[in-house]
């Protein structure tokens, strides 16, 4: 039985209400249930017997087998770099099984033994990210069929079918071999499953699996036709076999396909993990993910991973706003497993070779990027890659060891300095972040909004989907809290809201079953919910609610009716949100908007701000309504500038008396993040500005964990400085 298809009873937010999931649906996340008290104060280290922060990265000794002496040089350099953990064998299938059924693992024995000898750890990879050529040739089904029906060529990577029985069998076999050979090996500390799962295949196996999966979600073909609004343009299906996900423009069908791709990838991963867990049940498994990649609902992977891990290639380049967006991603990877420290599995120690202008890190920036991750809950800072390859696609990609080959490079020295610092941070291991604020990042809702034609066209995104700026919008709501040094969890709509004082749910377009009930029960008990334009429009099948927006029961609770949504032209620059005089959250001034404005009627809510111009001048732009002991805010437009978000967030912080990590004025570009546990509190102070900035700590005394310096009174932070301090 699969995850999504499993029937579940979940203890809901009220503690007394059980939400019944219909077949094919998940209505609440079990791990999220429970109050703050039931969550661990401190977590175990990633590797049970290694109570230190992990440091290291992707290492590809399989590429260097023809170059004698490199292995020994690598081991010596690893020690100098203060590294302790390496991901090995990620794309090594052709080296591990050069011919079908002939396994060559002697070279990997040398690698594993060498690591063990020095007390290093391996995240041993399953090699499924790149299949060997003989396999593509002999079993063409392992190669994907693209949306145009063409079988892909062998080359490249990440281009295998997730359903092919042959591929699944071959993966199980090689994984079982690896697990059997290295179980109990002192270097085997974790499993790195495949690499950056992504993409889809439209072969007959995949289409058949899709149709079978659809039957678990839709009780009958009639129900499916209703869910897809298939009467439109004569689209009704008469048989399951007629269903093809490549058929535009049925957005309900597209949405189910997106869900299925996630389901099938998770299922593929389970197939990978099964032989590993059978042989090595205590070795943690993870897979490396890509920020907020639009193609997979990462929430569903949290159930298969022992730890979450991701690959971060920010273009920080001295821009603190990028640092804030990066932080939101770190917070997301921590939140996916309820606060469990995650791994920054890949990052570049220098620059990449694929960004448009891969600028070198300025002095201080490497340490800062790494400590930013640690401050948000990473217990590992790892790189792509350890040694720079001499040929092929990534020969110009930053690495710890450059082609020059020594420890004398600036990059190596930066890495070694970071390694030395990490050794002083053992006390941070397993501590976590327990925010009072959460922001909702819901993949299915994002997909539904992106797939819906209108109310205006999407902007596209880095992942090529029309996502209507969902992630950017989340970032804009997140940033003010980061600037104030207030921790934020990044949850989904199925998460429990219990432990938060404030939940911000921008553009929560889709309301899945049970979400409104749980949200409102939480608000009634005192929670504060922020909703925005384009919220509560469709149910889980992407069918619009009747009875006015925001639907599904939110209209009554929010005390407003959003009658129409206006789509602004780029030249419509004069519309403004005007704060009402004496509004209780202290919002001031006028704020320009972009793209979306709704015509909202108050139905009981108080109006905190109105629109300035056009035919809806004077209508509400921001409202609040009481609901039980809590409140619902509704923002009816997309603010164009940060000042609105800053003012709104500051008002909420005051009203809810939210705790800041450090109660001092923070200059622009400076943030303070906090990890706590086991009775200790660590603060991560960062100055992302390219110039020195000062903080006034007053009488507060903070102790620098690295060198014992006491910080008090006026403290300066040089450009790109980060310090880890302990609060007494
Ligand atoms: C990652 C990938 C690595 C490497 C890296 C380069 O997305 O997992 O294998 O290609 O990018 O930045």
For the largest beta-sheet, the strand count, sense and barrel status come to: 11 strands, mixed
- How much helical structure, as a percent, in the residues? 25-40%
- The geometry reads as globular
Structural class call reads alpha/beta
> How many runs of DSSP E, i.e. beta strands?
29
Q: Gap between N and C termini, in Å?
A: 50 Å
- Note the beta-strand portion: 15-25%
Question: Helix count, per DSSP?
Answer: 16
Bound molecules: beta-D-galactopyranose
Task: Give the mean pLDDT.
Answer: 93
Which regions have little confidence, pLDDT < 50, spanning 5+ residues?
1-25, 30-36
Radius of gyration: 26 Å
Describe the structure in your own words.
The strands form 5 sheets. Strands 12, 13, 14, 15, 16, 17, 18, 19, 20, 21 and 22 form an 11-stranded mixed beta sheet that branches. The protein has a 9-stranded parallel beta sheet with strand order 7-6-5-4-3-11-10-9-8, covered by helices on one side. The chain is built from 16 helices and 29 strands. A hairpin with a 5-residue loop joins strand 26 (702-704) and strand 27 (710-711). It starts with 8 loop residues before the first strand and ends with a strand. The longest helix has 29 residues, at 251-279. It has 728 residues and is α/β, with parallel strands linked by helices. Helix 5 (165-182) runs parallel beside helix 8 (251-279), helix 6 packs across helix 8 and helix 8 packs antiparallel against helix 12 (443-451). The radius of gyration is 26 Å and the shape is globular. Beta-D-galactopyranose binds next to loops. Beta-D-galactopyranose binds at residues 195-196, 311, 313, 346, 352, 384, 394, 397.
């Amino acid at each position: 039985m699969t995850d999504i298809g499993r029937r579940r009873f979940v203890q809901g937010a009220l503690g007394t209400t059980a939400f019944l999931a219909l077949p094919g649906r998940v209505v609440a996340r079990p791990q999220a249930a429970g109050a703050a008290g039931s969550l661990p104060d401190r977590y175990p280290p990633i590797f049970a017997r290694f109570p230190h922060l992990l440091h290291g990265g992707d290492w590809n000794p399989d590429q260097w087998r023809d170059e004698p002496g490199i292995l020994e040089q690598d081991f010596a350099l690893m020690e100098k770099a203060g590294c302790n953990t390496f991901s090995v064998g990620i794309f090594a299938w052709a080296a591990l099984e050069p011919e079908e059924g002939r396994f060559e693992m002697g070279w990997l024995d040398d690698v594993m033994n060498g690591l063990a000898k020095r007390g290093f750890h391996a995240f041993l990879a399953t090699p499924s990210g790149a299949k060997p050529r003989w396999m593509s040739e002999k079993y063409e089904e392992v190669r994907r069929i693209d949306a145009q029906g063409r079988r892909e060529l062998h080359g490249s990577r990440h281009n295998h079918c997730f359903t092919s029985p042959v591929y699944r069998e071959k993966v199980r076999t090689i994984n079982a071999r690896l697990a059997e050979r290295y179980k109990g090996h002192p270097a085997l500390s974790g499993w790195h499953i495949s690499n950056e799962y992504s993409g889809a295949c439209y072969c007959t196996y995949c289409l058949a699996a899709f149709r079978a999966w659809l039957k678990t979600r839709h009780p009958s073909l009639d129900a499916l036709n209703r869910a897809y609004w298939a009467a439109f343009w004569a689209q009704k299906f008469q048989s399951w076999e007629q269903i093809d996900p490549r058929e535009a423009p049925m957005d309900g069908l597209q949405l189910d396909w997106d869900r299925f791709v996630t389901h099938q990838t998770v299922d593929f991963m389970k197939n990978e993990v099964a032989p590993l867990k059978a042989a090595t049940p205590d070795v943690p498994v993870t897979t490396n993910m890509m920020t907020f990649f639009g193609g997979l609902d990462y929430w569903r992977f949290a159930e298969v991973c022992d730890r979450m891990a991701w690959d971060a290639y920010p273009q920080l380049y001295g821009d603190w706003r990028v640092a804030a967006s990066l932080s939101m991603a770190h917070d997301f990877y921590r939140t996916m497993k309820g606060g469990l420290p995650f791994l920054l599995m890949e990052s570049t120690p220098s620059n990449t070779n694929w960004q448009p202008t891969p600028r070198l890190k300025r002095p201080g920036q490497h340490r800062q990027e790494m400590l930013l991750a640690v401050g948000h809950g990473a217990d590992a800072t790892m790189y792509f890659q350890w040694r720079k390859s001499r040929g092929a696609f990534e020969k110009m990609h930053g690495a710890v060891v450059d082609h020059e080959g020594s420890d004398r490079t600036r990059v190596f020295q930066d890495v070694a300095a970071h390694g030395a610092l990490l050794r002083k941070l053992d006390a941070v291991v397993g501590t976590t972040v327990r925010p009072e604020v959460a922001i909702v990042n819901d993949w299915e809702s994002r997909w539904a909004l992106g797939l819906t034609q209108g109310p205006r066209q999407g902007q596209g995104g880095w992942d090529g989907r029309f996502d209507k700026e969902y992630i950017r919008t989340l970032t804009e709501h997140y940033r003010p809290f980061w600037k104030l040094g207030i921790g934020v969890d990044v949850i989904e709509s199925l998460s429990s809201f219990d432990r938060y004082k404030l939940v911000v749910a921008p553009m929560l377009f889709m309301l899945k079953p049970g979400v409104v009930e749980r949200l409102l029960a939480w608000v009634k008990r005192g929670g504060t919910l922020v909703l925005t334009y384009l919220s509560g429009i469709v149910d889980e099948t992407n069918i619009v609610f009747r009875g006015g927006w925001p639907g599904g029961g939110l209209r009554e609770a929010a005390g407003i009716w959003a009658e129409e949504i206006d789509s602004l032209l780029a030249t419509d620059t004069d519309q403004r949100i005007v704060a009402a005089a004496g509004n209780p959250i202290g919002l001031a001034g006028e704020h320009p908007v972009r793209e979306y404005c709704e015509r909202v009627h108050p139905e009981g809510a108080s109006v905190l701000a109105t629109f300035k111009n056009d035919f809806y001048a004077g209508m509400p732009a921001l409202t609040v309504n009481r609901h039980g002991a809590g409140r619902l805010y509704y923002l009816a437009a997309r603010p164009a500038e940060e000042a609105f978000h800053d003012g709104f967030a500051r008002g909420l912080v005051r009203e809810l008396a939210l705790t800041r990590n450090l109660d001092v004025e923070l200059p622009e570009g400076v943030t303070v993040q906090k990890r706590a546990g086991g009775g200790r509190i660590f603060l991560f102070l960062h100055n992302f500005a390219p110039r020195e900035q000062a903080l006034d700590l007053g009488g507060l005394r903070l102790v620098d964990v690295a060198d014992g310096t006491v910080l008090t009174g006026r403290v300066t932070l040089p450009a790109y400085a980060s310090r880890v301090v302990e609060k007494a």
